[in-house]
Each structure stands twice: as C-alpha cells, then as structure tokens.
Specification:
Strand order of the largest sheet: 3-2-1-4-5-6
Number of domains: 2
Strand content: 15-25%
Order of helices and strands: EHHEHEHEHEEHHHEHEHEHEHEEH
CATH architecture of the largest domain: 3-Layer(aba) Sandwich
Radius of gyration: 20 Å
CATH topology of the largest domain: Rossmann fold
Length: 332
C-alpha cells in the first residue's frame, strides 16, 4: 500500500509527526510511506528507516502539486495539517482515501475527516497526529491497541542521529549546554539577560561550555547579545549550515535551553535534557507542544496568567531554582 503523509510546515511540526509515522509502520510494516515536506525539513528524512520516499513541496501551484501527487498513484493520504491548497491538490489527484482533521473549509475536500479540535490543546500535538493514523488503521480493518501515543515516541530516530554525537562533543569533563535564543511559530522569546542569569547559576554548580545556536541573522544577533553577557564562560555562537549539522550539535549536548522551536523538538527527539520556555496562551501551551523526550528529562516554564503572552514575565528566580533541582537529579 502506498501512503502519503503530509506535514509540510515547520521543523518542530515535522519532528512531532514521527510518532505517527512509527505507529503507521508498526501496524503496516510493508507499506510504502512517502512524506510531503518542504525543502528545509526534507533534509532530515533520509536519517529515518520509516520514511521510504520524500516529495518536495516548494510552494508550487495547485495544478503542479496535483500532477506530482497523481503520478505517484497513492492509495491513501493522511494529512496531519491541512491547507486549502493541499486539500484541493489531493482531491484533484484522485487519491482514493483522503483523511484530514475536520477543520475549516478545506475539510470539505476530503472524503474522510476526524474531529479533533486541536485549538483546545487538550493533548500533545504528536498525539493528535497519532489519532489520525489510528483512524486510518481502523478504517482499513485493523484494530490498533489503545496504548497512549507515548508508546510511539520515535526511539529509532535517536539511533541514527546519535552517531553525530562524537562530532561535536569535544570535552567530556564539562557539561555542554546548547541555548537557542530564537523561537518558532507563536512562541515568544525570552530576553538574553534571562538566559544569562540562568546559565550563570548553572555554571556555579557544574563546569559548562555554552553553544549558542542561530538560524537567521536576527537569531544570530540575539545569540551574540547573549554571548556578550557571559564573558567569563566558554561560549560560542554557532550557525549550523543545515539540519544534519544542527543534529550533530544537539546530539553532543548534555542540555538544551530555549523556547518552543524546531531545535527544542529536535533535542527532544534525541531524548536530550531540555529546559523550555512557553507563552501561556492556549494554542501554544507546554502540553500541546510537548517535546518527545521522556518526562524526567524535560522541564518547562510559562508566564503567569495575567501576562500569558509575555514570556519575559516568567519568574526567573523561581525558574532558576527549579532548573538547578532538575539538573541535580540528572547530573548529581
């Protein structure tokens, strides 16, 4: 069976689709899975044994996209995140089974729909993705077990990625801390002085080296501002040339610190320890955008309810105390 899986938006969204891919491959090990991805995230797909092929979505028009899809003769498409353009293209491509979340007008172009109400943020994004795969499996006569979506966290993603660890881990006598001061989607940015205060506190307890990551000139400026606030610590601003280089950096880290972003979710997929800062509004909660690392390896903070959109309003004194307790449990 040829199945098209669509999650053609950002890096973090792609990473949070991995459990759904794993679930699909578990129950249909002989199926051929193609993912429709933008060029940026497609660079990670070859590292997976679960994804058999990739189609590049470069933003081409509906007619060009539907021709691309029709040529592949897919038996089914599961759209984890739908837009009108993608919905129309899959319908015009005459894919027999077309499943997507029942949301907005685009749902009318699918012949199978699942009501999820993701905007309520009642479960993690990866669990919503798994629910769609579960529905597909039941529609074709399979009876998936009723485990939590946690059972399908992508442990097999870690194995190929972790081989990069030796590339960047140069000194095993110190703790390597990666900080990504930028943010993704609707997540706000924690100001550089807030990060600096946290890192200085960590450095009083453990010897550390700091890697500050940036993916754009704007983020590079943030990283440089943060580096200037850490003159007595070993810190370096790094702009990975591509996603495999970012993987190498994160795989060699003992801790990732940042806001809700693609690098956070990539660190989570590696089961790295993470400290994350989220805005408080409902569409961007820590539950909805929970990373894939195990519960004992992740810590998050949100601002008080009165300042739900202001990440800078997080009580950093309390956050620092909690972070030190968290790291004490992990590092001793």
């Amino acid at each position: 069976m040829k199945i098209l899986l669509i999650r053609n938006d950002k890096l973090g969204d792609f990473i949070l689709a991995w459990p759904a891919v794993a679930l699909l491959k578990h129950y249909l090990p002989d199926c051929h899975i193609t993912m429709l991805l933008p060029p940026y995230t497609a660079a990670l797909a070859p590292l997976s044994t679960m994804i058999d092929a990739v189609l590049i979505d470069s933003g081409q028009g509906v007619w060009a996209l539907q021709r691309q899809l029709r040529e592949q003769r897919f038996d089914a498409v599961i759209t984890l995140f739908s837009t009108g353009r993608v919905a129309l293209a899959t319908a015009l491509a005459r894919i027999p089974y077309r499943l997507a979340p029942a949301t907005k007008w685009a749902q009318l172009l699918y012949n199978q729909r699942l009501t999820q109400r993701r905007s309520r943020s009642l479960k993690p994004e990866y669990a919503y993705n798994c629910d769609l795969v579960d529905r597909f499996l039941r529609d074709i006569g399979l009876q998936p077990a009723s485990e939590s979506a946690d059972e399908w966290l992508p442990s097999e993603l870690q194995r190929p990625l972790l081989r990069y660890a030796a590339v960047m881990k140069t000194d095993t006598t110190v703790k390597t801390v990666v900080i990504h001061p930028g943010s993704g989607g609707s997540a706000g940015r924690l100001p550089p002085p807030h990060y600096a205060a946290l890192v200085r506190a960590i450095a009083t307890k453990w010897p550390v080296q700091i890697w500050l990551t940036a993916g754009s000139p704007d983020e590079q400026q943030l990283a440089q501002q943060l580096a200037a606030l850490l003159p007595k610590l070993s810190s370096q601003v790094v702009m990975p040339a591509d996603l495999p280089q970012l993987v190498a950096l994160l795989a060699g880290a003992d801790l990732f610190i940042g806001s809700s972003s693609g690098p956070l979710h990539l660190a989570g997929a590696l089961n790295s320890a993470t400290i994350a800062f989220y805005p408080g509004h409902r569409s961007a909660t820590p539950l909805r955008w929970q990373s894939l690392n195990s519960a004992d390896r992740r810590l998050h903070f949100t601002p008080p309810a009165a300042a739900e959109q202001q990440v800078a309003a997080i009580d950093m004194a309390a956050a620092t105390r909690a972070a030190l307790d968290f790291l004490q449990r992990l590092w001793g």
